[in-house]
Amino acid sequence: MEPDAADIGSGELLSPASYRALLDPGTVCLAQTERTHYGLGVLVLGDWISQHPLHFGYSASQAYLPSEPLAIAVSTTQGPGASAGHTAHVIAQRVAAALAPGHPIPDFG
Description:
Elements: H1 5-10, H2 16-23, E1 36-38, E2 43-45, E3 48-51, E4 54-55, E5 58-65, E6 70-77, H3 87-99
Antiparallel strand pairs: 1-2, 2-3, 3-5, 4-5, 5-6
């Protein structure tokens, strides 16, 4: 079985040290903040631990909110008349706003 957002976001599959490294904003050399940053293979977006593949007309967003625990997964494809941008992330933000209004998923740069 493939790992899901809760498996990845909770750190269940990792040692405590590996989980800290996964979420560490200092693991890459990009300008980041403690609140919104890249870890090792994940984005930390506010209270959420996320992954956001976007390429070749495919958009996905997987986010886990450890404090709830709540997992959201959205996948979209984009045809010629589709809106530009990361459509799956926008939908995930709307789902999060409905299910966890005190924990919005921020945009990322």
